[in-house]
Amino acid sequence: MQGHDLKIPDYHMHTPLCNHATGDPREYVLHAIKLGLCEIGFSDHNPMPAGFDTLRMRYDQVDDYVSMIREVQREFHHFPIFLGMECDYAPGTVEYVGDMLKQHDFDYVIGSVHYLDKWGFDAPETIEEWKRQKDIYSIWKKYFELWAEACATGLFDIMAHPDLVKKFGFIPGQNCEELFRTALQAAAKAGVIIEINTAGLRKPVGEIYPSLAFLQIAHQLKLPISFGSDAHAPDEVGMNFKEGVALARQAGFSEAMRLQNGKWTAYKLV
Asked: What are residue 110's phi and psi, to 5 degrees?
């Protein structure tokens, strides 16, 4: 269902500055209002040092990004719109990312892991490389180790699409719950929010990020959650949030987090 009056915030959406999204931010806002979302936040991909992909804004475009979001905030002043950034974690880049974030007053920062030793494992052109892998479990183990390291940096408020490594459906035969638990213990120690990201339903794996097993452990550890559509087009804003809420409830959650007066506060899932 995509019905109206989904009184849920969507804190994960992009702009054309990332080079793989379409639509003006104004269109994203209008679609959010049409759906009845209570508020939204833009969180486009951060610049990264040389050697990483170009599917993100350049460093010299950060000011443009901020200006773009400030403009829609002024136009839709009756509707809460937050300024966020989705920032990649990769070893050796923490100082670079931290310095970039200091340039502006971001409302929140989403953390994500898209690289394993500079291998952009979630890019469509890597599917053939995935097919050549002999040990999928070792890839997952490395991914969740990096995810835990990302939590520990203290840079991030929310951790995006926690099991993104499953995007193309390459899933280990082994039980991965110990990987999940170790990563989530790091998240709990860091006090980050776990994102329920509905974009996975639009990807080859065909399921929400993260899995029910991951979320059940997050609930056991009393971690908070938020929702993100990871919209790269206006009509993806708030997409499949009914399914996201259902998954959260199945895992035991009755509340999620939203930003109010600069602080994360809980609201009831309905």
From this structure: -100, 130
Dihedral angle over CA of 169, 172, 175, 179, nearest 10: -90
Contact 122, 164 (CB under 8 A): yes
- For the chain, give every domain's residue range: 16-268
What's the Cα-to-Cα distance from 115 to each of 52, 119, 229, rounded to whole Å? 9, 5, 21
**How many other C-beta atoms can be found within 10 angstroms of the C-beta atom of residue 185?**
15
pLDDT > 70: what percent of the chain? 98
Note if the pTM is more than 0.90.
Answer: yes
Q: At 239, which amino acid appears?
A: M
Tell me, which fold does domain 16-268 have in CATH?
TIM Barrel (3.20.20)
Residue among 139, 146, 140, 243 nearest 197 (CA): 243
